[in-house]
């Protein structure tokens, strides 16, 4: 544990503490600098993505009471780049008068998928049929009720495709459930949605209750990991766009979310063949599907998150281009770092906005992303192709 | 002097050292973060604008050989946020194999206005008639040659209106020259240009010789301090735009500039009543008249400067909006900090991009700027008005 560094904070400037040291905290620091702020970061290692670039870094463990208290001292707001801080420790901070945003009363819905589904159903948000699974019998009954189309999920801790299973038949479901319950995994099941694509409806909300959505985007996952976001989502009726934006604002308000909320959605056809949406996941922080806002929007998700947790009025979320595509740079099997490839990338793609996280390469690890803006809606296909090529080249050295 | 901090630099990432700790270094760090870099900053104080936000801060004096050597150790490039490092010290670094960009052979033209004027004349760039002034007789002869329309300048060290004098008559000229020569100020004089407006033509150049201009902007000074930039410069023929862009690239190439170059220009009417331009000043670093690129261009001047000094291919400089206006926030006489005003500012101007430098307020000091983008060329007047109002409010608390 190093001590906090008061010289990092301008006279009169609010101090925002970010618990977490990954790329989301790193990119919050980018925006903090321009707003005249500087973050204090609780980091697990001095060379972590955010610790590399911030001035006021406290080394410690987000699961330790003493470390959280130390980093939070004097903060105008405490926020997060993940949802895994134990709520009982956050409750203690709040009882000591610390301004924690978002609060555990909201975070619980991002931490526990069963709580989330139950709450969403309660407020009338579209969710697939679901059930808690505490026995093989529960699983069998649920499977029967949805015609065998079952997705099994760990209630807690899953991300990037981890903690989700797609049993092919009841036999596989039974053995999975037995195995996971034996390992003390809390389980739920839900009906598989035969979705046509994934969408993400993002919004920011302040403690005072102002909400400001971004245009809904189309996202694409591969192996459970986000690989692309296209903004705004192409080929979508204004009515459906509006429904997505209103849904995100309603979820933020009803669940008491503050800061940035990502509502990941499935788009599918309902029984009448009409486009319909269903909530897949919630994230209460800046989100991979919002990285495009850095280069495609007046106000990025990182700036908006800082404004929101400080209860400042929210910024304009108009786009600055007809289309923006974000492609993730995922570590490949190849030797070498993206830094060896960036010159050639810049030569071939002068329009590409390169965002690298300062992270060591591991296969499949998110080490950066590329944003490209297009000059017309007609350019979506071309911009997608270029963004994907650019990201692939940074990751692997090949186009 | 604190030691350098290696954990600030990602494995494989180039290390860029910035000599200087002001807002230009601060905003370079913003872009460095997104490129996956982190700067090492030579700062005069731990709470200076750039030192607040960077992780790897070396405290020291840019006029001290030992401090420069310490901060430059292991750097992939050494660059600056001002032009005042003694050239003999930079020459020593270069002789030790350090990659200094821009080099003293170019910096000399930004440091000494007489060298600059002489060189520009030599390459055929438009400059007003000028002369070295080493005696009252020199001054009298020059004044006679230009019909008494004389501007007197200190050859070195002037900025923000300092080091420039406008004698009203020969008597005033004589006493000024006598006084300044007695004070060992190196002087030059040039013919006053009856300009209609000021322009700024900015360009970046790499050591390999690639140049990439930005659209020329209209700038406005008050008391010698930049207060506004409108991009692109309105009401300008394509021919004149192109002439400005070509001029900036030619100056960068002929003077061997690397990194960002600002060519400040006067626009005036020639003897035939046609629009003409004349070079006023050069700056070899990101420049106040380029701050609009942060929110109005695909590639900002701060990102481009980093790319250029690392000899990376330069980024696209297309605008992302038909008009962008930058207004400076200059410290007022009022009590209080901009942080007390920012909530009200954000409520009234959700579209404003607020950039604050973490600097204590002093009257007239540049403490931040506001960028606003407009949706159409017709909106120039409205966007100018809003940007000025926003900046004034942050500075003074009144609209």
Structure report:
The structure is a homodimer. Chain A has about 400 residues and is α+β, with helices and mostly antiparallel strands. The first copy, chain A, folds into three domains: about 5-100, Rossmann fold, CATH 3.40.50; about 130-190, 2-Layer Sandwich (Dna Ligase, domain 1), CATH 3.30.1490; about 195-395, D-amino Acid Aminotransferase, Chain A, domain 1, CATH 3.30.470. Helices cover about 30% and strands about 25% of the residues of chain A. In chain A, the strands form three sheets. In chain A, strands 9, 10, 11, 12, 13, 14, 15, 16 and 17 form a nine-stranded antiparallel sheet that branches. In chain A, a hairpin with a 2-residue loop joins strand 11 (about 215-220) and strand 12. The longest helix of chain A has 17 residues, at about 240-255. The first copy, chain A, is globular and about 60 Å long. The model of chain A has no long low-confidence stretch (mean pLDDT about 95).
SSE arrangement of chain A, N to C: EHEEHEHHHEHEEHEEEEEHEEHHEHEEH
The CATH topology of the largest domain in chain A: D-amino Acid Aminotransferase, Chain A, domain 1
The assembly state of the depicted protein chains is homodimer
Radius of gyration of chain A, in angstroms, nearest whole number: 21 Å
Decide which structural class fits the backbone of chain A: alpha+beta
GO cellular component, one term (chains A, B): cytosol
Function (chains A, B): Catalyzes the ATP-dependent conversion of 5-aminoimidazole ribonucleotide (AIR) and HCO(3)(-) to N5-carboxyaminoimidazole ribonucleotide (N5-CAIR).
Pathway (chains A, B): Purine metabolism; IMP biosynthesis via de novo pathway; 5-amino-1-(5-phospho-D-ribosyl)imidazole-4-carboxylate from 5-amino-1-(5-phospho-D-ribosyl)imidazole (N5-CAIR route): step 1/2
InterPro entries (chains A, B): ATP-grasp, ATP-grasp_carboxylate-amine, ATP_grasp_subdomain_1, PreATP-grasp_dom_sf, PurK, PurK_C, PurT/PurK_preATP-grasp, Rudment_hybrid_motif
């Amino acid at each position: 544990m190093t001590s906090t560094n008061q010289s990092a904070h301008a006279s009169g400037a609010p101090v925002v503490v970010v618990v977490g040291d990954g790329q989301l905290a790193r990119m919050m620091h980018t925006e903090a600098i321009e707003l005249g702020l500087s973050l204090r970061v609780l980091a697990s290692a001095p060379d972590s993505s955010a610790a590399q670039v911030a001035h006021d870094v406290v080394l410690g463990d987000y699961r330790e009471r003493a470390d959280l208290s130390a980093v939070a001292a004097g903060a105008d707001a405490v926020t997060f780049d993940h949802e895994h801080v134990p709520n009982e420790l956050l409750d203690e901070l709040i009882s000591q008068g610390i301004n924690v945003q978002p609060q555990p009363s909201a975070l619980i819905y991002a931490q526990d998928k069963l709580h989330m589904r139950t709450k969403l159903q309660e407020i009338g948000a579209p969710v697939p049929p679901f059930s808690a699974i505490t026995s093989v019998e529960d699983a069998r009954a649920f499977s029967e009720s949805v015609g065998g189309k079952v997705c099994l999920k760990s209630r807690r801790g899953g991300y990037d495709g981890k903690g989700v299973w797609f049993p092919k038949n009841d036999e596989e479901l039974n053995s999975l459930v037995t195995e996971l319950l034996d390992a003390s995994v809390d389980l739920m099941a839900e009906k598989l949605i035969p979705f046509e694509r994934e969408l993400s409806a993002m919004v920011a909300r302040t403690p005072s209750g102002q909400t400001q959505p971004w245009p809904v985007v189309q996202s694409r996952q591969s192996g459970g990991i986000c690989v692309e976001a296209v903004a705004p989502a192409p080929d979508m009726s204004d009515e459906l766009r509006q429904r997505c934006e209103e849904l995100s604002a309603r979820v933020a308000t009803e669940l008491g979310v503050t800061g940035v909320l990502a509502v990941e959605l499935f788009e599918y056809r309902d029984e009448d063949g009409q486009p319909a949406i269903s909530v897949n996941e919630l994230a209460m922080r800046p989100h991979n599907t919002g990285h495009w806002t850095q280069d495609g929007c007046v106000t990025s998700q990182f700036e908006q998150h800082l404004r929101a947790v400080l209860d400042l009025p929210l910024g304009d979320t108009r786009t600055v281009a007809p289309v923006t595509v974000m492609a993730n740079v995922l570590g490949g099997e190849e030797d070498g770092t993206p830094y060896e490839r960036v010159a050639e990338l810049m030569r071939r793609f002068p329009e590409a906005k390169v965002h690298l996280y300062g992270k060591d390469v591991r296969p499949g690890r998110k080490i950066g992303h590329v944003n490209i803006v297009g000059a017309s809606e007609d350019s979506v296909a071309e911009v997608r192709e270029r963004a994907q090529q650019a990201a692939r080249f940074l990751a692997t050295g090949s186009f």
